[in-house]
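User: I'll paste a sequence; please echo it back and then give the predicted structure.

Assistant: Echoing your sequence first, then the prediction.
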Amino acid sequence: MNTSPNPPRESLIIRLSTHLPLLEKIFVGVLCLGILLKYVNINGRPLIYISLAGLAVVFYFFSFRPVEIEHEEDGASGFMDLFVGTIAPKLLGISSAVSILGILFYLMNFGNNGYKQMLMIGGSTTFMASLVLGFASVTGTKNIDVNLPILYRAIPLMAIDVYLFL
């Protein structure tokens, strides 16, 4: 009889986070294919809708991915270290998902302006988090580079938000 305890299982988000970059590439490829089909007068709108919804889900899950940061030996951290290492990636991931859903609702044209609220929330959250991250990079906060990949996704979405909102 085996009396050894079962080894701990990895959480779902850790197992899922290894596949998120691949899913993102697939959805971006499907989005490009849908846009290409639209420009050659073939109905590519369903592909665009599916890819935007999939990207929103992927960006949402990106915000719960564990972040690899270096900790000091004494363990002392301030608010900016907490913001840069934990809060900002979550804020930017969720605001990117909200922005993409706003863009999706704009394209689906439901007949009301509800998408503008999503664009405003996603874009303004990205703007404020980017401002604080800019301040953190000027003041020399450590581990600022963990936010660069999500900033490369969030800032273009913020520009699209501003364009569609106005």
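The mean pLDDT is 87. The chain has one domain: 12-66+78-165.
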